[in-house]
Amino acid sequence: MIENLNPQQTWDFLQQNSAAVLIDVRTKMEHLFVGHPQKAIHIPWKEAPDWQQNPNFVAQVRQVATNPNTPILLLCRSGQRSLEAAALLEQSGYTNLINIAEGFEGALDENKQRGNLNGWRFANLPWQQS
């Protein structure tokens, strides 16, 4: 079963679970230039320009989380790609999966802009840009 936590719940979980792994599944450009949570490991789910699923995604996750019971928290822009990635990890035998609902940038507001309603940055949680 995949659990959904909002960014603040995720931060609290990470503070209490030192073995947990936070994976940013966004593209390399999103991770570098939009920013990312501190200590997030970047493993893209899909990559521009063709947006094909990363065929090595599960293998790359296995390099940072060898135990299938390790808590893995997955983050994308708004919570959709991370949910897809979590579903594949669940099919691959991982049992402790958490999707970060709202993602890094959050939902679109009435002006079609992200970051004004919810998300990791909106919650003022630790993050950095390259």
At CATH level 2, the architecture is: 3-Layer(aba) Sandwich
Q: Any low-confidence stretches, pLDDT <50, length ≥5?
A: none
Counting DSSP E segments of at least 2 residues, the number of strands comes to 9
What is the name of the CATH class?
Alpha Beta
Classification by helices and strands: alpha/beta
* Overall tally of structural domains: 1
One letter per element, helices H and strands E, the order comes to EHEHEEEEHEHEE
Q: Give the termini distance in whole angstroms.
A: 34 Å
Please name the fourth-level CATH homologous superfamily.
Answer: Rhodanese-like domain
User: What do we call the CATH topology?
Assistant: Oxidized Rhodanese, domain 1
Count the helices. How many? 4
Q: Which strand order does the major sheet show?
A: 1-8-7-2-4
Helix amount, in percent?
25-40%
**Cα Rg:** 14 Å
What's the average pLDDT?
95
Which geometry do the CA atoms define? globular
Strand content: 15-25%
**What is the makeup of the main sheet?**
5 strands, parallel
Describe this structure in words.
- With 130 residues, the protein is an alpha/beta fold.
- It has a single domain, classed as 3-Layer(aba) Sandwich (Oxidized Rhodanese, domain 1).
- 28% of the residues lie in helices and 20% in strands.
- The chain has 4 helices and 9 strands, in the order E-H-E-H-E-E-E-E-H-E-H-E-E.
- The chain has helices spanning 7-16, 28-34, 57-64, 80-91; strands at 2-5, 21-24, 36-37, 41-42, 46-47, 52-53, 72-75, 97-100, 127-128.
- A 5-stranded parallel beta sheet has the order 1-8-7-2-4.
- The model has no long low-confidence stretch (mean pLDDT 95).
